[in-house]
Structures are given as structure tokens and as C-alpha cells.
């Protein structure tokens, strides 16, 4: 059963090492064909008995063997259902894994979903197909030879099983490869072989597939063209450069505002490196890991401060516009930043991008420009024959390469999503762009759900504490169906109260290591779009069994404190329980109950008691230095019939909002304390790092223009100076400052306690030494993990391997952080999308505040819609002969007798710029102050206009 | 995804074995004439020499003598050329000393020491090539040498390792698998009674997995025991025929 062979391999890892490894060759690896009578395989239905060829190129029945270069460069083509009876050799798998982890992952996904079409043949361990590397042979050549060897083995192997059959009907093995030499040698050995593009084009049943072929690099006319970009260094030179400190490695972020600018954040360096101009950016795409060379210090500059979009409306060909005009020389400015240029790309982070085709002069032509929805991504040139149909659709495109001679990266069309402007399409786009898993739950997941009708068993009740007698109620926003928290309050003795926070016991339903658990862990969080909710767990759980609905018995995880009238905690207790909520309040209803002194029922009394304690808790927290930040939050009033937004309301803040929040914070902190005590190595916690001082620079500058000295030395000092920065004549100014402060903050992250030093557990925003998320397990996976940890800590559940593994926990946390960030972006995009829809038939004048003053633009915030826009300081009729004087120190823009500074209130006109049907965007124009040539006239709608002008007069 | 994939989707390990397959074992006995007993054993690329002297009088300090049983003295050493990088100290370092103690404990449990009070049995093992499972190979080789020397044993001792990758237990781990970051459970047993005489674990893993990993290791021990038994029998019949011929 076992033949063995010892072989030598040399690897270099700093030193030359001789590695000796065993390599066993086996005789029990089967060919996977249904036809074969020789192999001892049991269920061999991957390769059909009589495959039907849909290729005109090779009409005979055949199996396909693919070469590594196809997996590496044409992975999108492989996703098509056109591929059947494909043999994947282990040589190919291993080569792919070494060369591109991304493609390897994709390939494995394809293999997992299409198990019936792809067969993996472990040729490296088969006694007849293993080849040894000859002296002097390159690894690549050896692999090619191994692939050919496997092909010819299959050929002879299959022939033996179909000796009697007609020659024409005999199954052959076809090798697909892009490598010219490999093809030639295969021909010599009698293996039928084709290029993948030849083969794909010959598939008569799948004519559209060829669109997905990646653009080949060897376009002949490219080679003798003048290169536009500097060459990238070879990987070995990059590595040695990084080692010697000459080059720096970092992640490239292109600027949102200026497509010719970007930064590279180098690990361990406070300030990121600035890059300017095409040559310095040198074909890097947002997210790539790049190697940067710093320029000498006298060439350092500062960000140009202008807002610039790549506004080519047609394919300009391979020319780079003159940059000097676009980049104003700013070497003399004071606050210069380390500046560099990209000399090489270490790892590409290309993914698939959503966007639209740029209308081309020649719709019949095949080469088109594609505009990604994400502003940070450059336009992509693709080849397609369906430009006419695709021009009205949102499509997905992948980048293949970016040769030196090409102005834009080359890519290929992957698939179409639907018509532009369609809400479903746009929703799909924003979900895809933010990598939100939104497919419906698969059968395996649904199989994990409890069967209906579901009842709490007697046994379950006995295991838990029975809290059904308590007057528990929940307070949530209106229309909430996934209620995951409820509260209770009762007086034990005159100076002693009992408060309980009851959280839905999701971990009872989502058991570790089930399909349901894995799906939830992958999704990480529920995503709330304006008109849609993408659940983390199936609806049966999220809106029914877990949701703490009123007057229904539900399982809960309770935190119960005994507190004094001064909100001092005497005792904390955690227990799994059974509860029955008495009522589900909305925030407004709860507020009414508190305020209305006629209401003397138990619930109203409880709410009053809770509210009183919450106020004390909040004060204590503020005294410790917790921040009150602000970000504009709005809600759309959606029409019930068309699902289109009809009005915008900003979310009101009531006492009850902060009351619920206060107790949730308290529960989270108590739980964090407890699980960390029990699991110092693997507790899932949440921290909010202290932002580095450099983050606060724009904030401090803005404060200065308003005449405030802001202290950012600690969160307490920051909170105090924010409270002090109030101007009576500009009420919104304080909110603006808080918005700016929010932007200086770091992201709060989940982490596993064993991976971070305890001093770094600090939560800056909440001023808590330790914090976690416990209170929303229906919509956050982290909470579910915390529930499991806590359940073990209180002896209500058992552990499992991954829970206690620090590495697993950290990996989960990383995914959760990513999903969390992405869901926030998706939510913001969804709001932006609805703002678009809202302005589709509207033009409105609105109050706005200047957020930033740039060299050629003003960035304004329209609080009513939470919308941000840029006003370009260019004349309406295109000639930029407006004499704006930019003062970078203040910063301010002056034109004639009008000076605009940060935080100034202006009036702007908001409309939907539908110059291009394709690419609609919100346009913002200045209305007041009046600047001839720039500002537009206010629209005359007496009803809304009059009060606003009055208000304005009062303000100025 | 970095590093090696210790267990492929097709269920093969890096070197082509299935999770429950041992490496190739080769062994020869009586290779030195000077020693009372000797053996050479290969477990894949791990190659070990073992020599046994005794029982004989206590050498050196008489205080080591035990009044009711024999004193088992083991010395473990690794050849300077046994690994990819040249090893400086072949013996006497902390790791070798620890290994020697482990071997002493293992064999004190297996040898019928009570038959030889106040005497000493020496076991010397030398790792010529190290490719994972050094302790295992040493125990197996030393046991074969003891058999060759004719030292009375309660039972043969056999040892085997097991590991856990993707929740699948692997038997007889080699160097690549061991350094790949998975835990290694080393077990020595007396195959007839099933007693465990030595057990160690290099890393923590969840207790849920322990029983299946331990079962795998014990199954490995028994398999190795069967193979070594065959070799032992072959050696003894050869010895028998050559004695009869003379």
C-alpha cells in the first residue's frame, strides 16, 4: 500500500538549508472517472461516463486539465457553469497557493460549490505520475512536465478502460494552457492542447463567456509604445531595499478628494507618507501593499488642498495630462509632510469593483472605460461587445493588469447587476461594494433552527431562574422587531433598589460549530439599510424566538444589580433566566409615561426609578471623562407604496434614549469585568484606543479660527473644552466641533484579551478601563461570543475548543471588526443613496455649515440631511476668473468683501446633478452669501423660504 | 493561508500519508558486537542507534546503587549532523538531559529491575538523523536493544506520537508537522497490558479532543509494536538457525 521515496530539497531562508523530506507515493489514488473499471473508488461521479463536448474546437468527448496560469489569470472564467469534467492537478493547486492566495481561495470556493464538475487528482503522490526535478531544470518546467505526465497517464489509463469502444467516442484528455512552450511540448507528446481563449471562444453554448476572459498582456501594439509610468522594481530588490531601510513598506490609500494624491501608512510611523502625481503613485490602487522611497527632505510638500476628480469624459487614450496645472507647487508651505514615490508593489489588493461604463463615442467599439462606484479606484479599461446594453446597467469588473504603457488599468467584465437608478440594483451595488454577505440563508443553516411551534420546556425552566413574576419592559425605537434588551426595577428597601438588564439568550439557539453558528460568525453583524435589514441570524430567531416580545415567555441572560439611591453598586449577579416582558415601549411612549404624573402603574414607576438612576450614572461617567460626540443622524420617512423616501427627519434624542444606553453600558462593563476575571487569556473585549495627538490637528485648527483653545491632552480635558466651546450666535457650532472631534477618533475594535496588554484595554470614548459588547446578541456576533464566555463563567454552559483558543478568538475578532466597519460604511452609503432618490425631483435651499476650506473648494455640511458636499470655487460658466484669495493659515477664502471661514453658516441649493444620466450626483451651489458669478439665486417657494431668511438675518 | 497545509482537502498529509498511517519503519538488531545489545531503527527519516550494557556492577559512585532493584542509566545524545543546521553540543544540554531522564523513567517501568538488585543497566541512544518523533524512535530502538541484550522485560515498550490538525488526529508526526504549530502528544505504552508509562504534550488543546488524539497515539503504538514484534521474531529465528548450524 505504501511505496516510499526520499528526496532532497534545498530552501533558502536566510541561510542555505538542506531540507530532507519524505515523499510517499501511493497506489490508492483514483482517477475519478465514472468510466474507469480499474480504480477502487467508490463514488466516482465527478467525471462523466460520456461527457458532451460543447466546443467546436474539439468535438470529441473529453476531460479538461488546466494549467496553473489559467487559474492565476482567468479565475473569473472558471466560475462559469460551462466548465464540466475538469481535472485539477495537485501540482496546479500547490502552485496557485504559492503564487496567489486570493486566487487559491477563490478556486477553493469554486471547487466547493461545484463539486460535481471539478475533480482533484493528487498527482504528486501517485506512483505513476510523480516526476522528480532534473538537475538544471527550473521548478516551473518541472511542474509543466508533471502536468503533462499526468495528462498522458490519464490518456493511457482511460484507454485501457474503453478498449472496445469506437475510436471517435473515446474520451480524451485536453490540456489548456497559456504557456507557449508547454503547449509545444504537449503537442510533441501527443496530448491535445489549446489556449484557454481559443477554447472558451469555441464553446458554442456559452457565447458570453469570452467577455470574462482577462485581457492578455501581450497586445502587440503595446510593446513599442512609450511607457507612461516608471518601472516597478523586482521583488528581490524591493526586499533588500526594505531590509536596508532604503525603502519603506506600507499600505496605499488614495485620496478621496484628489485622484492625483495618496498616502502610504507605514507601520510604526505616526505620519503617513504623501504621494503626488501619476509617476509617484505609479499604478498603485487603493489598498495595495507598496514599497515607497522617500524623497530628499527639500522636495517634501504638503497636501495640495485642492479637490480634483478625474473628469475625463471619454477615453483619452494613453496619455497623461499635464500635471503641473493640477498640482500647485506647495514646497514652500510650512507644514510639510514626508513625501515619497512608489517604486514597487508588494501585494495587489485588487478585488471586483461595481460601477458603470463611461459612454463612449463609439458604442460599437470594443474598448471602453469603466467608472467604479468607489471614488478611490481609478477608471478601468475593459473590452466588451455588449457596450450598448451594458451602458445603462451597473456592472462588476475585475482588474487584470496595469502595464506601464497604459494610462488606466486593464480589466474584464464579470457580470451585470441591473439597471442604473433601480433601487434594488443600487442596494445590491452597495452591499457588494462593502462586502456584506446578503444571500438568503442556505438549507443547512435553516436546518439548525428549532421547529415551530416552539415552547419553553419544563426542563429548561428548571435549569434557569424564573423571573416571570417581575415587571419587565423593553424600550426601543419605533418599528423595532428584534428586541434584544429589556429592563426591570424594584425597590428592595428604602435605600436599596434592584435593577435588571435582560438580554435575549441567542446562544441558547445558536450552538457552537453548527452551520448556523458559522454563518453568523461570517456575517458578524446585522446590517441596517434605510429600507432593508440584512439579518445576522434567520428571521425566525431575530424577530421571533429571540426577540423579547411583550407578553411572551422568552429565554434571557440577565444581569441583576443591587444599587443604592446614589447608584452605587452593592452586588452584581449574572444568571440565565426565563422572563415575560410586560410591554414594549417606544422611546417616546416611555418618555410620556415618565412625564405624565397621572400614570401610577408599576411600569411607569419603574421607568421613573430607572431614569433617576440613569441620570446619576451618566453624571458619574461624564465626571470620569466620557465624551459626548456627535455625528449627524437622520431617518427617512419612506412612502409605504413606492418605498421612496418622502421626508427626512433627524433622530430626536430623548431622556429615555440615554436611560436605556446607560444601563446597557453598565451591563457591558460588568460583564467585561467578569469574563476577563474568568478568562484572562481569551475574553472577547472591546477597546477604543487613545488617538495620537496628530489626529487632532484639523480639530485644533478649526477651534482656533473660532477663538477657542481646545485641550486634547486627555478625554476628560477634551470633554471639558468641548462643553466650554459655545458661541451664543452660532448654536450649531458646538455640534460641528463635536462632529469634527468624532472624526479625530480611532476605530473601536474587538480583541481577545490575551493579545493586548491590559493597560491598552481602555475605552477612550466611554472612559472605561474595560468594556465589551453584551447587550445585542441578535445583531452582533461579538455579543454572542461574550454570552458564551459568561455562560461558562457562571456555570450555565460548557466550553468548546475554539472559545478558549486565543488565536481563534483573535481571528474571529478581526473578521468582526472588518464586518462592523463595512456595515457602517454600507449604512452610510444607503443613506446617501436615499438622499439621491429624495432629491430626484427636488431642488431645495438649505442651511449649511462650512466644514473645511480648501484651496479650490468649500466643503459644507447640511445638517438637515447629514449630507456633505463640495462647492467648487469656479465660475458657473466655466471660466475660473473669480478672484478668490486663499489664506491657508486661517484657513479662509476671500472674494471681494465676502470672507468665508470654517464653521460659517451659508445657504446652499441642493439638487441632483443629472447632467449624466449615468452618473448622478448631488450638486451643491452657494446661495448666500452672494458672490457674483458663483452663487445661484434662491428658489422662490414662499412657504419655506420666508422663515429661513428671517432666521438668517437673526444669525448674521 | 501561509505556510504549509498540513492536511489537504483530499485527506493527505504533506508527505503523502493518510492521517492514520505511520512512517516506514526499518530496524536491525545486534549491529555492534562490543555492546551487550544494540539496535538501529528508522522511522521515516528519523534514524536512531541504541546500545545496551549490563546488567553489571555499579560504576562510579556506589551511592547510586539501589538495594532492591537495578539502576537504569540512560544517555540521550543527538549527532552534530542530525539536523539541517549543525548542532553544537551533542549531549549534556538541558534538552538532552531531560530526554535522558524521560527515558530512564520509561525503562525503569518496563525492565524487571527487581531481578538485579544493586546493579546497573546502561542504555545509550544516539539520534543520527532527526525528523520528528525523536523520543519515540529512541524508546523503540532502546527497547529493541534491550531485547537483543536479553534483559528481562515486563512487556515490550513502544512509543508513538499523535497530533491534531483541523480536528483530525494525525499519527506519527514528522518534523514539518511538528514545527507547523500543532500540538504533539507523545505516549509510551506497554502494549499487552495497555498501561501508559509515559505521556507528554507540547501544547494546550481543548480537553474534548484529548481522548481521540490519545486513542490515535495508542493505536499507533500498537501498530509499531506489531511491526517491531515481527522484526524481533525474524531476528531470533535467524539467530536460532545460525546457532544450530554452528
Description:
The complex is a heterodimer of chains A (956) and B (246). By secondary structure, chain A is an alpha+beta fold. Chain A folds into 4 domains: 2-182, 5'-nuclease (Rossmann fold); 227-317 and 331-420, Beta Barrel (OB fold (Dihydrolipoamide Acetyltransferase, E2P)); 444-681 and 771-822, no CATH class; 842-955, OB fold (Dihydrolipoamide Acetyltransferase, E2P) (Beta Barrel). Chain A has 26 helices and 37 strands. In chain A, strands 18, 19, 20, 21, 24 and 25 form a 6-stranded mixed beta sheet that branches. A 5-stranded parallel beta sheet of chain A has the order 5-4-3-6-7. Chain A has a 5-stranded antiparallel beta sheet with strand order 10-9-8-11-12. In chain A, helix 12 (423-433) runs antiparallel to helix 25 (806-838). The longest helix of chain A has 33 residues, at 806-838. Residues 217-223 and 941-956 of chain A have low confidence and may be disordered. Chain B has a single domain, classed as 2-Layer Sandwich (Ribosomal Protein S5, domain 2), CATH 3.30.230.70. Chain B has helices at residues 94-110, 134-149, 175-179, 207-245; strands at 25-29, 37-43, 46-57, 71-78, 119-129, 158-165, 168-171, 184-190, 195-201. In chain B, helix 1 packs across helix 2 (134-149). In chain B, helix 1 (94-110) links the parallel strand 4 (71-78) and strand 5. Chain B has a 5-stranded mixed beta sheet with strand order 1-2-3-5-4. The mean pLDDT of chain B is 89. With 246 residues, chain B is an alpha+beta fold. The interface between A and B is medium-sized, with 30 and 27 residues. Chain B: Belongs to the RNase PH family. Chain B: One of its GO terms (molecular function) is RNA binding. Chain B: Residues 21-152, 155-220 form the Exoribonuclease phosphorolytic domain.
Amino acid at each position: 500500500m505504501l511505496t516510499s521515496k526520499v528526496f532532497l530539497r534545498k530552501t533558502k531562508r536566510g541561510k542555505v538549508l538542506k531540507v530532507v523530506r519524505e515523499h510517499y507515493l501511493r497506489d490508492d489514488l483514483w482517477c475519478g472517472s465514472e468510466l474507469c473499471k480499474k480504480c477502487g473508488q467508490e463514488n466516482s461521479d465527478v467525471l462523466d461516463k460520456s461527457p458532451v463536448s460543447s466546443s467546436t474546437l474539439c468535438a470529441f468527448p473529453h476531460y479538461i486539465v488546466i494549467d496553473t496560469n489559467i487559474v492565476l489569470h482567468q479565475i473569473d472564467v472558471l466560475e462559469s457553469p460551462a466548465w464540466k469534467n475538469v481535472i485539477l492537478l495537485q501540482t496546479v493547486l500547490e502552485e496557485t497557493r504559492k503564487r496567489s492566495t486570493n486566487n487559491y481561495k477563490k478556486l477553493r470556493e469554486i471547487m466547493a460549490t461545484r463539486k460535481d464538475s471539478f475533480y482533484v487528482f493528487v498527482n504528486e503522490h501517485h506512483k505513476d505520475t510523480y516526476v522528480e526535478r532534473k538537475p538544471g531544470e527550473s521548478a516551473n518546467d518541472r511542474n509543466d512536465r508533471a502536468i503533462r505526465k499526468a495528462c498522458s497517464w490519464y490518456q493511457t489509463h482511460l484507454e485501457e478502460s474503453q478498449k472496445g469502444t469506437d475510436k471517435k467516442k473515446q474520451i480524451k484528455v485536453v490540456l489548456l494552457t497559456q504557456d507557449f512552450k508547454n503547449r509545444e511540448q504537449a503537442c510533441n507528446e501527443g496530448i491535445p492542447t489549446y489556449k484557454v481563449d481559443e477554447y472558451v471562444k469555441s464553446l458554442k453554448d456559452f457565447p458570453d463567456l469570452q467577455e470574462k476572459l482577462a485581457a492578455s498582456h501581450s497586445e502587440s501594439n503595446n510593446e513599442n509604445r512609450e511607457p507612461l509610468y516608471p518601472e516597478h522594481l523586482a521583488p528581490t530588490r524591493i526586499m533588500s531595499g526594505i531590509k536596508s531601510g532604503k525603502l519603506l513598506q506600507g499600505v496605499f490609500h488614495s485620496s478621496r478628494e484628489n485622484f492625483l494624491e495618496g498616502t502610504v501608512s507605514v507601520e510604526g510611523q505616526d505620519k503617513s507618507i504623501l504621494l503626488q502625481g501619476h509617476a509617484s503613485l505609479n499604478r498603485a490602487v487603493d489598498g495595495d501593499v507598496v514599497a515607497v522611497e522617500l524623497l530628499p527632505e527639500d522636495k517634501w510638500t504638503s497636501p495640495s488642498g485642492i479637490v480634483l476628480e478625474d473628469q475625463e469624459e471619454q477615453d483619452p487614450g494613453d496619455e497623461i495630462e499635464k500635471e503641473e496645472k493640477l498640482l500647485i507647487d506647495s514646497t514652500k508651505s510650512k507644514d510639510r509632510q514626508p513625501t515619497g514615490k512608489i517604486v514597487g508593489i508588494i501585494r495587489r489588493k485588487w478585488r471586483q469593483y461595481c460601477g458603470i461604463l463611461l459612454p463612449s463615442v463609439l458604442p460599437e467599439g470594443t474598448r471602453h472605460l469603466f467608472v467604479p462606484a468607489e471614488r478611490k479606484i481609478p477608471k478601468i479599461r475593459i473590452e466588451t461587445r455588449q457596450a450598448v446594453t451594458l451602458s445603462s446597467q451597473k456592472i462588476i469588473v475585475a482588474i487584470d493588469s496595469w502595464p506601464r504603457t497604459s494610462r488606466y488599468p486593464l480589466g474584464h467584465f464579470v457580470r451585470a447587476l441591473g439597471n442604473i437608478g433601480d433601487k434594488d440594483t443600487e442596494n445590491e451595488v452597495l452591499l457588494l461594494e462593502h462586502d456584506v454577505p446578503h444571500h438568503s440563508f442556505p438549507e443547512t443553516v435553516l436546518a439548525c433552527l428549532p421547529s415551530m411551534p416552539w415552547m419553553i420546556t419544563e426542563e429548561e425552566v428548571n435549569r434557569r431562574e424564573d423571573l416571570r413574576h417581575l415587571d419587565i419592559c423593553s424600550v426601543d425605537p419605533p418599528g423595532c422587531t428584534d428586541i434584544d434588551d429589556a429592563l426591570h426595577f424594584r425597590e428592595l428597601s428604602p435605600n436599596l433598589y434592584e435593577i435588571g438588564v435582560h438580554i435575549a439568550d441567542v446562544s441558547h439557539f445558536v450552538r457552537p460549530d453548527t452551520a448556523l453558528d458559522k454563518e453568523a460568525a461570517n456575517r458578524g453583524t446585522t446590517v441596517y439599510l434605510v429600507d432593508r435589514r440584512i439579518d445576522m441570524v434567520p428571521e425566525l430567531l431575530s424577530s421571533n424566538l429571540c426577540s423579547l416580545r411583550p407578553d411572551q415567555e422568552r429565554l434571557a441572560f440577565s444581569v441583576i444589580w443591587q444599587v443604592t439611591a446614589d447608584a452605587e453598586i452593592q452586588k452584581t449577579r449574572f444568571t440565565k433566566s426565563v422572563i415575560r416582558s410586560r410591554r414594549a415601549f417606544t422611546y417616546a411612549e416611555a418618555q410620556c409615561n415618565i412625564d405624565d404624573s397621572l400614570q401610577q402603574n408599576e411600569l411607569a414607576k419603574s421607568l421613573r426609578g430607572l431614569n433617576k438612576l440613569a441620570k446619576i450614572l451618566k453624571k458619574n461617567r461624564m465626571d470620569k471623562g466620557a465624551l459626548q460626540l456627535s455625528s449627524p443622524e437622520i431617518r427617512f420617512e419612506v412612502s409605504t407604496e413606492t418605498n421612496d423616501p418622502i421626508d427626512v427627519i433627524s433622530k430626536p434624542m430623548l431622556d429615555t434614549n440615554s436611560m436605556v444606553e446607560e444601563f446597557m453600558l453598565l451591563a457591558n462593563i460588568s460583564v467585561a469585568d467578569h469574563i476577563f476575571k474568568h478568562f484572562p487569556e481569551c475574553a472577547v473585549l472591546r477597546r477604543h484606543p487613545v488617538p495620537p495627538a496628530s489626529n487632532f490637528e484639523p480639530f485644533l485648527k478649526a477651534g482656533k479660527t473660532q477663538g477657542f483653545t481646545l485641550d486634547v491632552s486627555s478625554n476628560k480635558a477634551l470633554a471639558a473644552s468641548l462643553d466650554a466651546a459655545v458661541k451664543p450666535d452660532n448654536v450649531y457650532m458646538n455640534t460641528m466641533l463635536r462632529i469634527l472631534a468624532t472624526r479625530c477618533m480611532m476605530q473601536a475594535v474587538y480583541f481577545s484579551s490575551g493579545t493586548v496588554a491590559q493597560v491598552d484595554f481602555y475605552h477612550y470614548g466611554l472612559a472605561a478601563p474595560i468594556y465589551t459588547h453584551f447587550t445585542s446578541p441578535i445583531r452582533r456576533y461579538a455579543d454572542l461570543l461574550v454570552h458564551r464566555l459568561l455562560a461558562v463563567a457562571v456555570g450555565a454552559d460548557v466550553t468548546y475548543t475554539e472559545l478558549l483558543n486565543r488565536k481563534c478568538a483573535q481571528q474571529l475578532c478581526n473578521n468582526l471588526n472588518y464586518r462592523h466597519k463595512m456595515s457602517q460604511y454600507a449604512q452610510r452609503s444607503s443613506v446617501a443613496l436615499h438622499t439621491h432618490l429624495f432629491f430626484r425631483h427636488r431642488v431645495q435651499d438649505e442651511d449649511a455649515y462650512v466644514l473645511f476650506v480648501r484651496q479650490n473648494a468649500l466643503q459644507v455640511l447640511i445638517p438637515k440631511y447629514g449630507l456633505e458636499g463640495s462647492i467648487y470655487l469656479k465660475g458657473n460658466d466655466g471660466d475660473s476668473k473669480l478672484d478668490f484669495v486663499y489664506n491657508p493659515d486661517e484657513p479662509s477664502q476671500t472674494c471681494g468683501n465676502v470672507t468665508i471661514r470654517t464653521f460659517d453658516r451659508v445657504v446652499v441649493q441642493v439638487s441632483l446633478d443629472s447632467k449624466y444620466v449615468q452618473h448622478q450626483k448631488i450638486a451643491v451651489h452657494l446661495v448666500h452669501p452672494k458672490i457674483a458669478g458663483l452663487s445661484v439665486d434662491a428658489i422662490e417657494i414662499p412657504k419655506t423660504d420666508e422663515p429661513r431668511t428671517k432666521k438668517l438675518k437673526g444669525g448674521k | 493561508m501561509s505556510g504549509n497545509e498540513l492536511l489537504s482537502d483530499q485527506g493527505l498529509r504533506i508527505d503523502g500519508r493518510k492521517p492514520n498511517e505511520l512512517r516506514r519503519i526499518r530496524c536491525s538488531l545486534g549491529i555492534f558486537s562490543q555492546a551487550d545489545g544494540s539496535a538501529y531503527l528508522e522511522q521515516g527519516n528519523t534514524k536512531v542507534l541504541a546500545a545496551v550494557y549490563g546488567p553489571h556492577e555499579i560504576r562510579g559512585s556506589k551511592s547510586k546503587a539501589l538495594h532492591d532493584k537495578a539502576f537504569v542509566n540512560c544517555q540521550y545524545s543527538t549527532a552534530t549532523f542530525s539536523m539541517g543546521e549543525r548542532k553544537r553540543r551533542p549531549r549534556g544540554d538541558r534538552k538532552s538531559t531531560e530526554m535522558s531522564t524521560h527515558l530512564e523513567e520509561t525503562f525503569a517501568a518496563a525492565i524487571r529491575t527487581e531481578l538485579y538488585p544493586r546493579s546497573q543497566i546502561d542504555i545509550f541512544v544516539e539520534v543520527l538523523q532527526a525528523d520528528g518523533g525523536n523520543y519515540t524512535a529512541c524508546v523503540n530502538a532502546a527497547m529493541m536493544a534491550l531485547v537483543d541484550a536479553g534483559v528481562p522485560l515486563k512487556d515490550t515498550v513502544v512509543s508513538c506520537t499523535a497530533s491534531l490538525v483541523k480536528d483530525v488526529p494525525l499519527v506519527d508526526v514528522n518534523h514539518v508537522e511538528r514545527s507547523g504549530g500543532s500540538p504533539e502528544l507523545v505516549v509510551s505504552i506497554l502494549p499487552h497490558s495497555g498501561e501508559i508509562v509515559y505521556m507528554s504534550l507540547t501544547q494546550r488543546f481543548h480537553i474534548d479532543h484529548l481522548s481521540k488524539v490519545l486513542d490515535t497515539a495508542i493505536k499507533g503504538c500498537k501498530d509499531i509494536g506489531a511491526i517491531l514484534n515481527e522484526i524481533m521474531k525474524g531476528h531470533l529465528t535467524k539467530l536460532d538457525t545460525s546457532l544450530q548450524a554452528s
